[in-house]
User: What shape does this take?
Amino acid sequence: MNGAQLRSVAAETLAGDAQKLRDAGGRIRFAYAWSPNSDEVEVRYLLALPNRRDFQMWTLKGDRGVPSLARIWPSLGWYEREMTDLYRVRFTDHPEPYPLVLRQGSSTQVNGYDFAERSASSGKAHLPAIDATDVQQLPFGPIRADVLESAEFTFFYVGEHIIHYQPSLFFKHRGMEKRFEGCRTDQAVIVAERVSGVGTVAHALAYCEAVERAAGCEAPVRARALRVLLAELERLYNHLHYLGHLCHTTTLKVGEAQGKLLEERAKQLNARLTGSRFLRSILVPGGLRRDLAPGTWLGEALEGLRVEFVAYVERLEASESHLDRLITTGPLSRRVAFDEGTTGPVERASGLDRDLRRDHPYAHYAELPLVVPILTEGDAYARERIRIAEVEAAFALCQRVLLLLEPGEVRAECAPGPLSEGLGWAEGPRGALFYAVHVGGDGRLARVKIKSPSFSNWRAFPFTVHESNMMDYAINEASFGLTVAGCDR
Amino acid sequence: MALWTLFGLTSGKATTPWPAGGSDGQDGVLGMPRYNPEACREGCGECAAVCPTHAIEARHNGLFVDYGRCVVCQLCTEACPTGAMEPSNDWALGVRDRDDLVWSNDARRSAAAQPSGRGAFHRSLHIRHVDAGSCNGCESELQGLNNPFYNLHRFGIFFTPSPRFADLLLVTGPVTHPMLEPLKAAYAGMPEPRWVMAVGTCAVSGGIPGGGYACGTGLEGVLPVDLYLPGCPPNPAAIIEALLMFLDRTPQRLRRGHVVG
Assistant: This one.
C-alpha cells in the first residue's frame, strides 16, 4: 500500500508480534478488513513505530478465526467488532463479542449477507448488575435535550454521584464507507466531505492524500499551501465553537455568546474565501478544484479575529467560576489515553506528545513552523488550554501561509491505476484521521476505510465519567469535544 | 463576573437587523446551481453524469432538476460547458410543497398567498430537533441560530427539550435504521397541532448516505412533512427564512424550481 509498508503476518504469531510492538513503544493505530476478491477477506493493522515517519501495515487472511488483540491493545476492540459486523471476520477470545455498528436482529444487507440471519456475533454489551436499592439507573437518549447529536447514555448513580456510565453509540451509523464504493476517485471527495460536517477539510484532505499516494502523484505547491490554510481555518472555527460550548456548560453566559460569535465570524470568513461555511467543494485528488484568492483581506480579517480572541482568552483565564468547574474535572490518565488510542487535543492534554502534522508531515506542514502544545494534567482545564494554544498556532500558520503563497498551478493530473492502494492522513481539529483507499480493476473505488478521531476518543471518555458526579458531566463531555457523526460514520 | 458584564455592555449589539435590512451574514455563500434551460445543449448530459445524488437526470424531453436532492457540491456547474448550470447564491429554498423543489417549465404561481392557519403561532413557535443521522453539519448551523449574530429568540422561535412542548419537529439526517423508532416516538409525543420540517438534503431526500444499507432516504414516507429545506447544510439565514415563511411572515421564494422575488 502506498504510504505504508505491507508485511504479511500469521495468526499464530500475531499476539506475540503485537506485544513486541507495544514493548518497543510502537502503536497500532487502527485495523480494517477488505475483500481483495469476492471470497476472501483480509485483515489489516496500521502500525506507527516510534521516531519513524513512515507507517507499516500488517496483513492477515481473515477467513479463519483471527486472535483478538483487544486484550493487548484495548483500542482495537471496536475495530474488531466492526469487522465482525461488516465482514463476518471471527475474532477468538474477544472480551466484548457483541455487534457494534449494527444492531442485533436488524435485517441489514451488507457485503452480500443478511446481518439478522448470518451475523458472526450476537448479544449486546451488558450493563453491570447493580441491584442495590439506592442505586438509580438513568437511560438518556438517543434524542437528547438541546440541539445535539443522537446517542444513548446509561448512568448508574446515587444522588449526585455517578457510579458507572455506559454510552451506546452508532445510532447514526450511515454506512458511509460503503457509499464510496463504485465512485470515481475524483468525485468521491464529495462523499468524504460529508462524513463529518465539522471535519469536512480533514476528511477531504486525508481522502485526497490517500488517492494521490495510490496514483503516485503530488499536488502542486500552491495547492498544498492552500490546503494547510483550509485545514487551519477548520481548526479555528471548531475550537472557537468548543470554547463557546464549554462556557455554556459552565454557565458563563457572555463567554458562551462571545465564543459562538467568534465562531460565526470564522465561518463567515470561510464562506467569503471558498463559498462554503464548512470549506466544502474545494479539495480534489491532485490539488484544488479551483484557485482561491485570499488577497490581503483574509490576513487582515484573521488578525482582527485574533486580537478579539486574545482578549477573550484573557477574560476566560480571569473567570474563577469558569476555571473552578474545569480544574480537576474529568481527569484522563496518560495510560488510559494511550491504551484507548485517544487522539488530538485530548491526548495532548494527557501528556502524549503526538501530532500527525509534525510526526508524519503531509500537505505543506513540513515547510512550516509548527507548535504542538502538550500538557500533562489531563483534566478539562488542560483540554481547554491545549485548544486555546492550538487556536493561536492556527492563526500563526494561516498568516505564514498567506505570506509565503506564490502564484501557480493548483491541480495536477491524478488518476490512480487499477488495483492501486493508498493511505492518507490528516490531523483534524479532533485528532488523527486516516483513509485507506483501495482502487478496483475498473479504476473506481473498491474499498475505503475511515479511521476517525472521535471513534477513538469516545472509547476513552467513559473512563473519566465513572466515579464522577452529575454536575460535572456536561462540562466533561464538552471538554472532550466529541462528534457522534465522525464516530458512527 | 463584573468584567463580563462590562464587556457585554461595551461591545454593543452583535445581532444583525436582517431580515429587516442589514446583512444576512452569507456573503459569498454558494447556493444551488441555477438552471438556464435556454443555454442547455441538447444531448449533452454532462451535469447529470457527475451529479452524485441524481438531482439532475437527462431525460428525453430535457433535464430533470430536483433541488430537493441537491447537495450543493458544484460539480454540475464545473462540468457544464455552456453555463446552463450556473453557480448561484440561491440558498433560501424553504418550500411547503415538495413539488416546488422540482424544476418545471410550467412556472405556475401555486397557492402564493394562502394563509396557512398558523396565525396563533405567528410570534411563538417551539421546535424539537431530532438528529436522525446527520453528518453534524446541519447541527452546527442549527446551533449557530442561537449565537448573537442570528439570535433566533428575537423572532419568538425557541428550541424546546421535550416533544410535548413542541409545535414543530425539525429533523436532520437520512433517518438511519436505529433512529427510525425514536423519531416516530418523538412525533407521537407531540400535541396537536404539530408540524414536521425536513432540514438538509439528507432529511428531504436521503442525500449522500441515503439508500445505503444503514439508512432510508429521508422523511418521505416516514412522517408527513410540512416544510422542506434542502441544503448541505442549509445556512442559519436559510433556516430562519424558512421558519418565517412557514409562519407566513415572509413569502416563499422558490416556486416550481424558479427563484421568485
Notes: The mean pLDDT of chain A is 92. Chain A touches chain B through 68 residues (CB under 8 Å). The first strand of chain A starts at residue 4 and ends at 8. Chain A has three domains: 4-118, 136-168, 176-488.
